[in-house]
Each structure stands twice: as C-alpha cells, then as structure tokens.
User: Fold this.
Amino acid sequence: MTQGLRVQNLTKYYGDYKALDDVSFAIEGGQFVTLLGPSGCGKTTLLRVIAGFLECDQGEVYFGDKLINDVPPNKRDAAMCFQSYALFPNKNVYENIRFGLRMRKVPPEEHKERVEEAMAMVNLTGLGERRPYELSGGQQQRVALARCIVVRPQLLLFDEPLSNLDAKLREKVRVEIREVQKKLGITAIYVTHDQAEALAISDQVITMSAGCIIQNAPPRDIYDRPNSRFVADFVGTANIVPCRILERTGMEYLVQSPYGELRAVDADCDLPAGAEGYLCIRPEDLLPSGKGESSNQICGAVRTAVYMGNLLDMFVDIGTEQIRASIAKDWNVTEGEAICFRVAPDKVRILGG
Ligand SMILES: Nc1ncnc2c1ncn2[C@@H]1O[C@H](COP(=O)(O)OP(=O)(O)OP(=O)(O)O)[C@@H](O)[C@H]1O
Ligand SMILES: [Mg+2]
Assistant:
C-alpha cells in the first residue's frame, strides 16, 4: 500500500488575497479523496501546493512521515492529471504515455513493458499507433491517465479531469479511474465542483468554501449528516428554512418552523432549547400521506409537479414558503391540490448558521 498524506495549517496568499486559510487534513494510504467546492474556493491552489508547483506561505505537507515542503515537484513521487489532457498532438498514444518515463529517466529497456501495462490498465490496448485526434474524448482522457500511472507514482492528483466530457462518458470514465486507482492502491486526490461525482467515487469528501475546509467526511455522512447550511445546500438538494427549538430531550427535538411544528432526532446537533437554527429536509425524505394519518406531517398545496422520468419533482406551497418533494413517478397530482407529507424525525436535520 502507498503512503498517506498529511497537510497541516496550510495558508496561501495571492498578494493580499487569502486563497487557503489554515487548511489541515490527513489521507490514509490508498484512499481516494475529493476536494469539493464552488468555483474559486481554492481547490486547484491546494492541489498545486501538494504537487509542489506552488509554495505555501505557512504550513506543512507530509508524505508518509516525510516533510516535503522543500522537495521539488519532480521528486515528490506525485503525478498530476489535468482537465485539458495536455497530450502531444503529433505523437502517437504509445509515445505520449512513454513521455513520463523519459522525463523520469526510467531505463529505456523497461519502457515497452511498462507502457503496455499502463495501456492495458486503462483499456487502450491496440491503440498505441493512433494519434490523439484519432481518439474520442474518453480515450484521450484515458491516455492522460495512463501517462500518470505509467510512472507508478505514490500519489495521483486530478484537477477536474472529466470536465471536457459529456455527462454519460463522465460517469463511465470516473468509474474507470476509481477502478485503476483501487487496483494500484495509489493514494488519490481528485478535484471537482460536481457534488454527484464527489459522492460517487470517494472514500472521503473534503468540502471547501472560501479557502477553508467546512466538512471532511465519507460521502454518506456528507449527504446525510451535513455539518452546516453550506454543505447541506451545496451537496444535493435540500429544503432549508429557519427554525426555533421549542424543546430538547437528549437528541430529540421539537422545532417550530415555516413548515409547522416538527419532531427531529439529530445526534449531531448541539443547540439548546430556545436557540434558532435551520431545518433541513431532503426532497426524497418527504413521503405522501393522508392528512392526519401519521405524525410529523407537512401539509400544503401543490404549486407545480415536474415529471423527471425516474421520479416526480413537486413544489408545494406551505404558507409563504415552498417545499420540494421527490416522489414516485406514478403518483398523480394536479396543481392546486392539497397534499400532506410525513417525514421521519431522523430525516429532519437541525443545523446552526
Ligand atoms: N495566480 C493567481 N493570482 C491571483 N489570484 C489567484 C491566482 N490563482 C488563483 N487565484 C484566486 O484564488 C482563488 C482560488 O483559486 P483556485 O484556482 O484555487 O480555485 P478553484 O477552487 O480551483 O476554482 P475552479 O473550480 O473555478 O477551478 C480564486 O479566487 C482565484 O481567483
Ligand atoms: Mg480549479
């Protein structure tokens, strides 16, 4: 298994602008971690500091137990895979992949076997003679991936590698990237601003905003137990409204909100009775139910219903607020119709600011 990575108190300024603000995290060897966040939050900056292309103003980067702040990029045993594949247009696939070996001065007699092994790993066998313009976008991306793995790095760094591909191909190639990374047991850091992609491929998702880490957790926790309004809103879809805590007993809450009085069970919340916060409910956790037929109901009138193929997306007026519900596609509703949903208390989250 390859070594892990530890980043401690990293701060990076561009002039007066603080692009990274005291960033710390650790990745175990062989793990696949994504840096997720909106445009400009510092993802590429963080990746470039880790790769050694950019110096930080404060903080340390450790690879295994070794401090690598002063180690130049080509000695860091990391390979970076970019959004623009940066392939040589007039070199064939074989030569494009071999480039990395030549750069690292690997003895020429090893080249053929290693390039062929990398090509097989990413399903490019037989395409060695082709030039980049004779390949599809997905194949070009795989050449770029092969060029990274052929040098057998300890650390793979990806900066939005799939953003030039269409949605279907992106899903396919991301699964391939994950499989190759698992097979080789290489530690990987993958930058994306696509939350679905981050949830789909990671062991751990590091959610960032304005140069800071907001939450660092496995995909399920990021989605089911967001630690803030920012993460709840950025990852997936969420109904978020202000609320006040009326009662609290351990992790059971009664809250007042524009959706009415609701019960919540939330082990992560630490707000006391009387506190103000935000209530968060995912659209798929709202289940249609007859009025008064269950507890913890939210009732309103259907504003619009959008047929999505796999489900029905509904926007429902609750007083002056709205709630979005995703329900089974064969449900029939008409606009203006009264409707009630029940929500399990453990699907109601209470968040601080
Ligand atoms: N060389 C630079 N000089 C000055 N400011 C920069 C420089 N590079 C980046 N920035 C600024 O630092 C912030 C972080 O940039 P960065 O490229 O790390 O964001 P990002 O999260 O990768 O965004 P995106 O998703 O758009 O790629 C941005 O506000 C950006 O404008
Ligand atoms: Mg970027």
